Amino acid sequence: MTIERRFARAEFSLTRSYPVAVERVWGAFAEEQQKLAWWGGEDSIEPGEWTFDFRIGGRDIAEHKFHNGPVSRYEATYTDIVEHNRIVTTYDMWIDGAHMSTSVASLEFEPSPEGTQFTHTEHGVFFDQFWADGHNREQGTRGLLDALASYLQ
């Protein structure tokens, strides 16, 4: 099978207001047990490899198999962390072993009168058969932020 070699760029920014203090939202990303409680913990997936190393230069890995579907693999490197302020990562995604994308994501945590204003901004490059998946990545990130909201309640 010949794969057509092409790629596409996609970017998006999502902002959420969470009615809890910045420290609480921050902890959901910075503490392994908290992140495990909301990150990809849906009933529709079987968890696989998990690595959590929250520090500049540290790497996270989250692999999941969708029931009756593909294996998704996320590998991230933390490039910048300012406590209670921002997290920047570069990350790669694979689907069934095929390199799907490379992205840079910035996560911003700002105190607000209601609690925390959180902004996720992402710039990605999608490869070959996945070239049109930018919209799906945004939808997937929306789902993660919804899971975070449920966890924080």
Largest sheet: 7 strands, antiparallel
Helicity level, as a percent range? 10-25%
Shape: globular
**Secondary-structure-derived class:** alpha+beta
Counting structural domains, the number is 1
CATH superfamily caption: START domain
Head-to-tail CA distance between termini: 48 Å
Number of strands: 7
Number of helices: 3
Mean pLDDT: 91
- What fraction of the residues are assigned to beta strands by DSSP? over 45%
Low-confidence stretches: none
Question: What Rg do the Cα atoms give?
Answer: 16 Å
Give the SSE string: EHHEEEEEEH
- CATH class designation: Alpha Beta
CATH architecture: 2-Layer Sandwich
**Order of neighbouring strands in the sheet with most strands:** 1-7-6-5-4-3-2
Write the topology of this structure.
Elements: E1 7-18, H1 22-30, H2 32-38, E2 45-51, E3 59-66, E4 71-82, E5 86-95, E6 98-112, E7 115-127, H3 134-152
Antiparallel strand pairs: 1-7, 2-3, 3-4, 4-5, 5-6, 6-7
Helix pairs in contact: 1-2
Q: Would you write up a description of this structure?
A:
With 153 residues, the chain is of the alpha+beta class. It is 23% helix and 50% strand. The protein contains three helices and seven strands. It has a seven-stranded antiparallel beta sheet, with helices on one face. Helix 1 packs across helix 2. The N and C termini lie far apart (48 Å).
Summarize the structure.
With 153 residues, the chain is α+β, with helices and mostly antiparallel strands.
Keywords:
alpha+beta; Alpha-D-Glucose-1,6-Bisphosphate, Chain A, domain 4; seven-stranded antiparallel beta sheet; single chain; globular; 153 residues
